[in-house]
Write a structure and sequence with these properties.
68 residues; 16% helix; five-stranded antiparallel sheet
């Protein structure tokens, strides 16, 4: 694993909306502009991406995920 294998930044039309970080027991979601605890731990990268998208609201476009 390289340094770029551990974090993905979620970017929507208004800019960065969150990030996903690889953790020993899954993938941790961090949502920018939300209170602590609105993220969570997910078993796969795809489920973490889905959680970020769902947190943006029902009409939001799916963000792009860029390895960082």
């Amino acid at each position: 694993m390289t340094q770029n294998d551990g974090t993905w930044v979620a970017v929507g039309p208004a800019g960065a909306v969150g990030a996903i970080h690889r953790a020993p027991d899954g993938f941790r979601v961090e949502l920018y502009g939300h209170r602590e605890g609105r993220g969570g731990l997910f078993p796969s990268l795809e489920s973490a991406k889905g959680a970020v998208h769902a947190a943006l609201g029902p009409l939001a476009a799916r963000p792009e995920f860029h390895p960082h």
